[in-house]
Design goal:
It is an enzyme of class 4 (lyase). Helix 1 crosses helix 8, helix 4 runs parallel beside helix 6 and helix 9 crosses helix 11. The chain has a domain of about 240 residues: Rossmann fold (3-Layer(aba) Sandwich). It is an alpha/beta fold and about 350 residues long. It is built from twelve helices and twelve strands. The chain binds nicotinamide-adenine-dinucleotide.
Length: about 350
């Protein structure tokens, strides 16, 4: 099948490109604007494969998207391109509206025009898969509740509000114009090639540099962690086997407080790379909480397990150990980003994975 992946130079998009290209009967066209979050080095494992190609384009440019859809005879669009960092959305919401709302509208516009020109089996096969977040559902109490596909939307941040808007647009293009779509909403991802300002890589790399390990408030906020390669498998399954018009929640069944995430990283590093003196947890530093910080997200992923047969392969502990090993072995990837793009002043950003 021929896939168009938007945002394929980002954290999850690059995992999706690597996963789909591992089946040599698939072709992937990766469309990415290369914002600060895009990094072509994450595609190095596949960049020379015959079934992978890259186009530096803005998703707001629907004319170029339509040309690519036609040129590459696309069967499935997997739309991941987004502004994705909550703290950046608080400092500067405009780019989030531009890319996440207008950009998704332009992707739908180009995809509908392309879809209308298809016929037969090709038209039957076409899907627009929109990748979204559990943050559209808002905040859960610490001790009860879980997000299902029926949970009403209640976004708290400019980021989650822009993603909620894009989800609504995708459903409207299905209901109003008959565009075949599937949607998925997932929890916090972690794993290799994760931008070093996010909580897990930041804590690993700061610990190795003997720098403070920042935690928002008291570290009580709970997130449900999903290993990125498990997510990439889930997305490929949803894009190709998901039922037209349906949405699927994807989660790792690994709820952890931020404090326990940081503590577990310190424990693993204490074993793998002992400090000269004391534990890495001595570096934990509490910083002022983010405004509108949701307490807890938790995903009920039973629908995708039941209907599409997907299950995560990594537990949080095995996925975290693999992630730490990857960061220890791959300074070629994260070193330049840490030195050039992200100097570590925006410590607060680390609390949104
Ligand atoms: P990311 O920030 O790592 O990557 C986003 C990519 O989109 C970058 O490569 C960037 O260059 C590209 N991009 C941004 N604006 C663009 C534009 N206008 N045109 C073309 N490309 C553009 O994001 P991620 O963490 O990989 O997330 C991917 C998707 O998954 C997003 O839609 C996000 O909302 C969703 N999601 C992420 C998480 C998570 O834990 N990371 C959780 C739930 C949902």
């Amino acid at each position: 099948m021929n896939f168009l992946v938007t945002g394929g130079a980002g954290f999850i998009g690059s995992a999706v490109c690597r996963h789909i290209c591992s089946d040599l009967s698939n072709n992937v066209t990766n469309v990415d604007k290369l914002t600060y979050a895009g990094n072509l080095a994450s595609l190095r494992p596949i960049e020379n494969q015959h079934n992978y190609r890259f186009e530096q384009k803005d998703i707001c440019d629907d004319g170029s998207i339509l040309d690519i859809l036609r040129r590459d005879d696309i069967d499935v669009v997997m739309h991941l391109a987004a502004e994705s960092h909550v703290d950046r959305s608080i400092d500067g919401p405009e780019a989030f509206i531009e890319t996440n709302v207008i950009g998704t509208f332009r992707m739908l516009k180009a995809s509908l025009e392309y879809y209308r020109g298809l016929s037969g089996a090709k038209k039957e096969r076409f899907r627009f898969h929109h990748i979204s977040t559990d943050e559209v559902f808002g905040d859960l109490p610490f001790d009860s509740g879980i997000f299902t596909e029926e949970t009403p939307y209640a976004p708290s941040s400019p980021y989650s509000a822009s993603k909620a808007a894009s989800d609504h647009l995708v459903r409207a293009w299905h209901e109003t114009y008959g565009l075949p779509v599937v949607l998925s909403n997932c929890s916090n991802n972690y794993g290799p090639f994760h931008f070093p300002e996010k909580l897990i890589p930041l804590v690993i790399l700061n610990a190795l540099d003997e720098k403070p390990l920042p935690i928002y408030g008291k570290g009580e906020n709970v997130r449900d962690w999903l290993y990125v390669e498990d997510h990439a498998r889930a997305l490929a399954t949803i894009a190709t086997k998901g039922v037209n018009g349906e949405s699927y929640n994807v989660g790792g069944n690994s709820e952890r407080t931020n404090l326990s995430v940081v503590q577990t990283i310190c424990d693993i590093l204490d074993r793998k790379r002992p400090r000269k003196k004391g534990s890495y947890s001595d570096l934990i530093t509490y910083v002022t909480d983010r405004p509108g910080h949701d307490r807890r997200y938790a995903i009920d992923a039973s629908k995708i397990k039941r209907e599409l047969g997907w299950t995560p392969q990594e537990s949080f502990e095995t996925g975290l150990a693999r992630t730490i090993d990857w960061y220890l072995a791959n300074e070629w990837w994260w070193g330049p980003i840490r030195r050039e793009k992200y100097s570590g002043q925006r410590l607060g950003e680390a609390q949104k994975a």
